[in-house]
Amino acid sequence: MTVLSDQVHLHPDQLGAYWMPFTANRHFKAAPRLLASAEGMYYKTDEGKTILDGFAGLWCCNAGHNRKPIVEAIQKQAATLDYCPPFQFAHPLAFELANRIIDIAPKNMKHVFFCNSGSEAVDSALKIAIAWQRIRGDGARTRLIGRERGYHGVGFGGIAVGGMVANRKMFGTLMAGVDHLSHTHNLEHNAYSQGLPEWGAHLADELEKLVALHDASTIAAVIVEPMAGSTGVLPPPKGYLKRLREICSANDILLIFDEVITGFGRLGTAFAAERFGVTPDILTFAKGVTSGTVPMGGVLVRQGIYDAFMGGADHVIELFHGYTYTGHPIAAAAGVATMDLYRDENLFENVRKLEKPWADAAFSLKGHPLVEDIRTIGLVAGIDIKPVEGKPGLRAYKAMENAFHDIGMMIRITADTIALSPPLMINQAQIKEIFSDKMPKILDSVAKL
Ligand SMILES: Cc1ncc(COP(=O)(O)O)c(C=O)c1O
Predict the structure, then answer these.
(1) Binding site membership of 118 for ligand 1 (Cβ less than 6 Å)
(2) 150-179 pLDDT, tens per residue?
(3) pTM of this prediction?
(4) Is the CB of 414 under 6 A from ligand 1?
């Protein structure tokens, strides 16, 4: 019997009912990885073991776990206003949070549309882009351009513009009228890059080819992650995003940055757009907006996009889109408390301060016989390890299991890449714990497979 907490006990035969997402269910249920509590940088398992959180929950608990100001804001809100319908009604905290996000967003971003996840944020952004083109009289612009190895969540829009084959191949024809740029990952040119790789800006010119192929008059928007996270940490080559921006502007194509991972400090600035000096027309966020505590996502748009929708009779709904839980009071309360914490503890600045020590510590793994590449930027590291012949993904999977059960750390894996992205409150001692103590043990534990 597994003890979940003082009150909850779980029999192995109770594990079947929950169909777990993006999980090898049978393997998990044979040796569950169950978490019972968390504080700061650490989780506790159901058996009371302490686990260092190597990827901030799932790239989301940027302020660290169970932070008192956020917990208290959630408790207070739940006891004050549990729910408020977001269609035709609202509550003050949704406006307050929207203003707080605008305060730290790229200068041209003036309005926030709330939803409940990154996937919803992406689908909302794509719908807004297509609708905007139609409203301004360009209704033929419906085509969307994504990128290979992009991850934009799991909605039909997100998987259509996304570029991860396993997420796409089972689900039919997806959306019509989508094309993709090439991804920018190239070990021949960019192996072991700290920060932005030197090689690859020219890959943005592929957008010109797609414009020539489809004609700009059919293309609504391009969507990319400024740094691709879920497909193994792929920072953009130097100059790449600027070039995309130029081509989009020259052809009246909207540029959407999916900042679900990079938003709220992961790269040392509130949003990656600021760090890279490239401003999109639309920007999606989720995860870090509430530090992972309550589901929330959103879309930021520039003034002209919002304004275009504000024509017509003023009693008529302008955008036929929204969710029952848009701007939920408890999520909004968590969001405001999270913004306070980011500001009061200078957490984005902490990332800038620690970027170099983090990168140097990660690069200390270079030379380990299993390590094939290391990429770092902000508080992110991607570490490619040698696949077991004929069994792609197995070595990283075993590494994740051993890390949890035997070494006391949680790592995120995609195929044979280990991605690390800890809470932004991390300190030098914990960086050392990750790269000098735990990671070598994790790698050594899967040397013989
Ligand atoms: C860039 C990006 N977009 C969208 C999503 C989807 O977010 P969610 O899982 O909240 O739907 C993710 C999740 O990791 C992401 O990394």
Answers:
(1) yes
(2) 999 999 999 999 999 999 999 999 999 999
(3) 0.97
(4) no
